[in-house]
Each structure stands twice: as structure tokens, then as C-alpha cells.
């Protein structure tokens, strides 16, 4: 874990940072989720623990289902800046970018990015550096009261999708 790091041009300073590579199996998702919750709590943001854990769970599950290759690890990085907790999940499949979609009511999958979109203050993707692949990131603001609905309200009142032109993961 890094306690302080100089920032890249245009990015806020990193106050604390943790990154760990995981094997592409379902158990890794729960390990990453528990680690994120512990770190965010230790870093002094107990109000963001549940949101950070859920974001890690959703992004790591997407990496596992759509972005991992056999024998290639995925990475979870959590960084604390003066304004946000940033969660990044990197995988080796840069050609498979995440897109939100509206799943049918009877579908078991397809709601993860809807949760990410509603829970995170900002989220997006970037090319993985170094190496091939992509990074999907999400941020939770540290200085503002929560401005997103709770997880339970998302379950009972799913958000409306504005981007229905893009297909889901292939």
C-alpha cells in the first residue's frame, strides 16, 4: 500500500493506494470486495464502505465474466485522493468495453453497470497501462453527502437507461 504518491498531470494527489492482482475465479470477487471494504474503513471513510464494496464486486465480476483470459490475472486498485475514493479494475481484454443496457425483467444478468452508474459519482474506462487490456474505474466523492440512491432503492426502483443504442458485451 502506498501512503502518498505524486499525481500525474491534471489528476489529484493520491493520499493512499492499494493494488492487488487476482486469479480469474469467482472467489476472487469476494476477496477483493472484503479487502476494499476494510481499506476504505481504515482510510477513514466508513460512510463509503458499502458503496466501495458494491462497486468492486460489480466491476470485478464484469472483469471475470467478460474481460479475463485463462491464466491472466485481473487487478483491483483502490486509491484515496483528497476528493474521492477511486476504484479501478483492470483486465486483459481491451476490445471488450463495458456498455450499459436494459435487461429484460426475466434476465438474471445485465444490471451490474446500472448499479455502478447509479452508485458512483463518476465512472468510465481507459486503456490499460502498461500492457494490453482496459481499466474500468468508478469514483465515490469523499467531501459531499451521498447524492445517489441507496442500494435498496435501486433494487426496488431500477434506473432508466438513456443509452440504448450500444449493444452489451458481445
Automatic annotation (TrEMBL):
One of its GO terms (molecular function) is ATP binding. Residues 160-170 have a biased composition (Polar residues). InterPro entries: Anti-sigma-factor_SerPK (IPR050267), HATPase_C_sf (IPR036890), HATPase_dom (IPR003594). It holds the Pfam family HATPase_c_2. Residues 124-170 are annotated as: Disordered. Coiled coil: none annotated. Keywords: ATP-binding, Kinase, Nucleotide-binding, Serine/threonine-protein kinase, Transferase. It comes from the Bacteria. Residues 24-137 form the Histidine kinase/HSP90-like ATPase domain. This is ATP-binding protein. It comes from Streptomyces pathocidini.
